[in-house]
Amino acid sequence: MTNQEVAIPVIRAEFSSFQSIRVEVEGNPSIHWSLECDGQSLAIQQVETHREEQLVIYELTVLEPVELECRYEVFGAGRSIRVVPDRLVRTEAFERKYRYEGKLGVWEEKGTFHFAVWSPVAERIMCVVYDQDERLLGKYEMERHEQGAYHLQLEQDIAECWYRYEVTTYLGTQEVVDPYASAISENGRYGVIVDVERTMTKWFLKRVARPLFVKPSDAVIYEANIRDFTIDHSAGSSYPGQYTGMTERGTRSPRGHATGLDYLLDLGITHLQLLPVHFFETTDERTRSPYNWGYDPMLWFGLAGSYASSVEPLVRVREYAEMVERLHEAGIRVTFDVVMNHVFIRERSSLEQLVPGYYFRYEVDGTLSNGTGVGNDTASERFMMRRLIVDCLTYFARVYRIDAFRFDLMGIHDIETMNDVRAALDAIDPTILVYGEGWDLATALPERLKAMSASAAQMPRIAHFNDVFRDALKGSTFSEFDRGFVAGDGWKEGEVRNGIAGSVHIDNQTYGRFPEPTYSINYVEAHDNHTLYDKLKLSCPEADEQQLLRMSRLAQTIALFAQGIPFLHAGQEFLRTKQGVENSYNAPDEINRMDWERRDDHLSLVTYIRTILQIRRMHGGFRLHRANQIRELLHFIDLRPGVIAYELGAVHSYDAWQRTLIVYNTTREIVEVSLDHSRWNVHVQGDEASVDPLLKGVDRIQVLPLSTTIATC
Question: Which residue ranges does the record assign to the Glycosyl hydrolase family 13 catalytic domain (predicted)?
Fold first, then answer.
């Protein structure tokens, strides 16, 4: 070896296709290259060179396509370097060659446990089995099949033992938790050898039917965090912060009012959306601390143990399943919060360790895409990532009988994936809802492919959180001092009208954001950002508590009566506060808890919201599910600035009320409206709402400041 050869730095060598290798070298050398596969020489058919800035690029062409389970090395200038498939795994050729549609995970057939995991770049995979004290029981070499899947069958009695995969790739050898593990040990350290689907049939000999549900516009979604809902002493729960606490009956606040499930039943919701229950990283399941919402996923099929009564693997499975069953018995459907747009730490994720570089999205320059803002975006456009998403959701719909799926940062995903999700869930139950955050995020995906609200028409029967309507009502979420329509910003009146009409095009004064009203999730508050009360308090520092209550009541009423799908965040109906904390994802219980005593302080507002939901449920005019119905039946009436009035007319086909007049007054003055005859009845006025008339036979109505009046005939 010459001194010149020793000094030549070879930067990297990688496959640019299945028959070509790209070698990057600094300087201006002339090098003769040779190639070996698992120590055997391979002929190089052709060598081409070109310069890229300070680098010399060698493109080596080989005669036969490479096999990624082999170890390839190039030799030149007296040294060798491993050839890696970093970019190759993100090519269409890789997708075609290694597209795998067989079963994955662990399952049992006739007493035999089957294991299957996908890793085309693995040189070797061992299944490592441990007992429940983490003592090694055995290592078993898995057999490589076509499309890069590794399989194993074990007939010995290993039920409920723990396992991991020892995977050898070009990055080295490491133990990996099965990404398809449906049962996991504490803190997600091991998968558990159990067929959860078969086990569920033993636990529940007869499953409770899904609660009756006809169409999306019938839904009332209520978002809650399992821990928040019962952790405070005021909840009166025997299972604070646990799955079991969500369905405990007979709980009461210190003043004797219903809490927990009894409260939800009284409120009148149809769907309970729970913040993430898949395994998340930052809460230690043994100590249940520190607090975290759970938007830091590492495994998706396994459940969070911090909400279970014990960290034992099957306890969380059973208690979560029992919670869903009890909610179904009570007539409430369950929404699963899907956080599959990123992982907490990419380098430690099973996906990255099994197939480095495949499951995540990259910019053209080779850097990681970061539209999520947490350092990585999953690449749903790739077949096996798309398949993972579809497999996970259909698993929860089939095994746990989940009724709806809410996608966190849905705009990170691609349209085709979302449509595949919709089709797969339709095959299980077409009444399952799919909705999400269709934000336009800066991810490395062409705009035309993003599953964002602007592309809603390309995703039939998938709903989107209507952030435009939200901000028009209460002010910009991202500017805490910006005021919304209910706080007197008349410039936002047009967007509020759009939202009331389901954000579909009905006339020249409305903008058709969505093709159908059921594509719109109407809300004023969710788990993230300021609560409605805190936002109003920040943007309206001059307002007293009574004015804040009225503005909150008005904003909620507008959103709940708007065409589309209404959504409430737990506690907004009693002015929930997080003490001004905008993003409470890791704040303590004192900030995030459901304060049931505050609910008791605002019983009149809770009663009002409950009645609004009851009126909506009883009268189909508020639940029109087609844009053409809204165009035909909903008509706005111009009264004065700061006041929105509209009539639902000739709705007798859908409603016992033939005509309904709704007036929202954001001014500080009483507004009087003359009616066309004296047979009108008033059901909502000021701080009162009733399914029976508050006033009968009127020909004139008063709309109090910062309030709603609804009259019918």
Answer: 244-616
